[in-house]
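Please, structure for the following, as tokens.
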Amino acid sequence: MVRVEIVRVWAGVTALVLAHLTAPSSMAGFRVKPYLLAPEPNAVTVVWFSDDDTSGTLTVESTGGVSTFASTPSRTEALTYHPAELELLDSNAHTDAPYKHMIRVPSLAPGSRDTYVVRQGDETHEATLSASPPPDTAVRFIIFADCETEPESTGKPTQWPEPGGDQDRVYIADQTEGFRQNLLVIQERSPGFLAFAGDIAQSGGEQRDWDEFWRHLSGDFGCLAGSVPIVAAPGNHDAYGGPKDFGRFTDQGHHRANAKFRTYFATQPNEHRPPQGYHRLDFGSITLISLDSTNGLPDSTDRDTNWHLKARDHGHDFNPGSDQYRWLEEQLADAQKRSAFTFVQFHHVPYSVGPHGFPAGDKGHRHGQDKQSGIPMRVLTPLFIRYGVDAVFAGHDEMYEHSVIRGGAEQLPGDLPDGAEQTPQTRPHDLHVLDVGIAGDGLRGPFLGPGGRFKGLGANKYQVFLADQDAPEVWDGKRLVSGGKHYGHVEVNVTQDPSGQWQAVLTPVYIFPLMDDQGVVTGWERRVYDDEVTLTDKPLSP
């Protein structure tokens, strides 16, 4: 076992910090290739996993010199396989708990891009990393939700509901290919970071589902996360043990799922990144706040987003008076002073015509209720408007839907759960709420309102765009020419003009399947829905 060994070379001067070493148990390489977390103005964290306890080395080449770090592997019992999974694994698969390697790379120049190499056993991985950029720098980031990876998705396309009707079709590609093509387009855009608004794995308690996720992000499908930091908020599937023997939302199932999520995304806490499932990222001129929406309190009330989770230690309550709510208000007040734009991500979309757009309850959709409703999250809307949040990104309903809650003199929504504080506006401000649940799982149509299955139960009165209706499919025989609901994401570009005025452009992107005359997919193309939003804000304070 290795405690730590750090070798730094700065302008020809070498410093060596000795450590205790033992012989490696094998030359095994990566279980998960390196990925980046938690960028800050002068630092970023590199994480990877190995099959044994051999120390790895991380070498960073920057303008200031070369730094080499040795990792301290730690066994991660949380990432073991459930007994029901073992018979589903390849006979050559490593089934023991892997070892986590995590190194915080300090002393980076803000905004610079440096080459790094990780050596683990007999394997190496080379990529680039960077710290977060200075506040006066243009920023691009990309956000989506609901990739819900699982090995069973390969070869099984999702349902693709007929626009405006109940007829179900099968999508053109399976979920594995859809997510892969989505990530390829994202990689071409070179974002500063990639944000996930929940439901990362299909079943958070199934290790194979997490293996499939990292296969896409830091594995044989691609290594986008090795150069682009990822910022994750938990979703209900990330808190789900899995079907049947995997434990569903029982105490045991939830704790197993939650432990896997934390193992992959936890870094050293600081004042903006507490050990809970909510955290803050300051990146150039913007602030992104990630919340844990997986369970509200009291249980089984109109304040609860998951009636399946009963214990108080499942998730972090978000309602007024909770620790998360108080933390959120402090961060929003600070971000309003510091950042040109404030964005928030969490999983349960509060305004939607999808299956989770029904009020919380256990009577089912035909009676206008849902056990995992997003409506309880509306309790935060007054807080968002009061502190000038520009956009909220969520998922859960696996569609692209854009809602706008108007600020200014207009009264705040009157359909908030009990406990929502009705407050006057500090300045005219519209809150944009975007369902970005189109990463790679379902492609749902509306349940409520026009074209929905339950037309008599109301609609989303704040909706301004729904891909299912506002991007109609155009066909030429068997070939889809344009439009339709597809996998995709939202790209956010933040820039400053010569006068000091900042603007943020929110671009809804979909990954369009190019077809021949027989309807066979021949390629994929980045396209944009006609719902691009431009936000403006004041110059940053000096």
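Residues 3 and 72 are 6 Å apart (CA to CA). The radius of gyration is 23 Å.
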